[in-house]
Amino acid sequence: MVKPNPRPELVLSKDPVRHYSKSTKLADVCYDIRGPVMDEAKRIEDAGTTILKLNIGNPAPFGFLTPEGVARAVAQNLGASQGYADAKGITSAREAIEREAARIGIPDVGIEDIYLGNGVSELIVMSMQGLLNTGDEVLVPSPDYPLWSAAIRLAGGVPVHYRCDEDADWQPDMADIRNKTTNRSVAIVVINPNNPTGAVYTRPLLESMLGWARQHGLIVLADEIYSKITYEDAEYIPCGSIDEDVLVLTFDGLSKTYRAAGFRTGWMIISGPKHLARDYIEGLNVLAAMRLCANVPSQHGVESALSGYQSIQALTQPGGDLFEQRNRAWEGLTAIDGVSCVKPKGALYLFPKIDVTKFRVLDDEQFVFDLLHDRHILIVQGTAFNYPEPDHFRVVFLPPRDELAYAISEIGEFLTTYQQHPR
Ligand code: PLP
After folding, report:
1. What is the mean pLDDT of the chain?
2. How far does Cα 285 stand from its chain's mean position?
3. Given the CA of residue 118, which atom of ligand 1 is nearest to it?
4. What share of the chain in percent tops pLDDT 70?
5. Position 244 pLDDT exceeds 70
6. 124 Cα nearest atom in ligand 1
7. Ligand 1 in reach of 253 Cβ (< 6 A)
């Protein structure tokens, strides 16, 4: 008979107050878009001052509302949403996503390859928890959407940032991807259309990336949540449609195109050689089952969202609010002497560069703090997106044109104080 281990002696602490710390797993996990600057903005607001927020891609507070049909489908199905659903999502939503996958050219997707989640955010965390062992490397763009780096670290992995080239419209730098791939690399994140740069990747570039992934057995993690938010002649090409020999996880959802960020509904599609990923898929199924199911009411909006008229197009074409706001913000920023900006071809953001030989911005977070205090305008520092130089910031172009014009002229004026009085 196995003897039970003796219980360790309980040593009574002299200090009766016990302090509780976060787990060591969180040591390197950071998500500065909602970090200390946002806390300070909240403090200022609570004290009664209005802040113009250009910091988060949350369409509804700026009047970009969820299409009526989507909201109605959710409301009408509240009664049918009271119980837990299938861990991977309700059938009508998964069938609609299956049709959408076929429509955009992702081959051989069945409803068993589709997972609904509480936003793409949850699925990103889940996909990384299910995949990574300690020390596994994932190639991530720089600048990135920082949830990716955070989720990789939380799962014990190592984000390895590859360069996106501002001088080439922020397209990923293939030479840098090649240099940074090692035998610990297991996956590569592709954010297209991109947050924060607004880049939309060309077919030849995506073919090179997928070719590299095939050669090295990398899983492609395609965050395509801005898939339908493109401007002018920019064409969104799904990673999953490029090379059927590469395992691709495609992420999209209701938050941006359907302006329903609060509904917390996103989806993940697995395509490519799924037979090589049986074990990983088993892990994903365990993780999906552990949280029982995703929020059910809003899954009822997916079928309506994906079928028929796509109201986002009226917003992104000339004359549409997103199109015109993008132009106004870009024109305003590039008119500031000492600020340059690649014109975004997709998504909801601009990622301008400050000429630090003209303006003495040495610490971009401090700059963002100072702007908040001085002008009550909230933006996000470039380093929050794991960008290595402290000379960029991100602006969301969701506010109306006159507010954008006002905010940008304030930013331009505020920058001149850096010219005269380095901080
Ligand atoms: N991925 C990218 C690139 C994003 O920009 C965002 C939100 O801003 C998300 C994922 C999160 O999406 P969700 O609201 O579906 O969690």
Report:
1. 94
2. 23
3. 16
4. 98
5. yes
6. 10
7. yes
Instruction: Give pTM, 2 decimals.
Output: 0.95
Which ligand 1 atom minimizes the distance to the CA of 194? 3
Task: Answer whether the bond into residue 143 is a cis peptide, omega within 30°.
Answer: yes
User: Half-sphere exposure of 412 toward its Cβ, with a 13 Å CA cutoff?
Assistant: 18
Whether the CB of 349 sits within 6 Å of ligand 1: no
> CB of 141 closer than 6 A to ligand 1?
no
For the segment 246-263, what is each residue's pLDDT rounded down to a tens digit? 999 999 999 999 999 999
Distance of CA 361 from the midpoint of ligand 1 (Å): 29
Q: Establish whether residue 33 lines the binding site of ligand 1, counting it when its CB lies within 6 angstroms of any ligand atom.
A: no
Distance from C-alpha of 274 to C-alpha of 113, rounded to nearest angstrom = 9
Tokens of 304: 């309506």
Which of 407, 396, 306, 342 minimizes the C-alpha distance to 64? 396
The answer to whether the CB of 57 is under 6 A from ligand 1 is yes
**Is the predicted pLDDT of residue 422 greater than 60, yes or no?**
no
DSSP for 14-64 reads SS-PPP----GGGTT---GGGSHHHHHHHHHHHTT---EE-S----GGGT-
Distance from Cα 120 to the centre of ligand 1, integer Å: 6
Q: Which amino acid is at 406?
A: Y
Is there an atom of ligand 1 within 6 Å of 223 CB? yes
What is the tens place of the pLDDT at every residue in 111-131? 999 999 999 999 999 999 999
Mean pLDDT of all residues in 24-28: 86
DSSP state of 168: G
191 lines ligand 1 (CB under 6 A): yes
- 3-state SS of 352-403? CEECCCCCCCCCHHHHHHHHHHHHCEECEEHHHHCCCCCCEEEEECCCCHHH
Calpha distance 273→281 (Å, rounded) = 12
CA 199/CA 240 separation, integer angstroms = 18
Residue type, 89: G
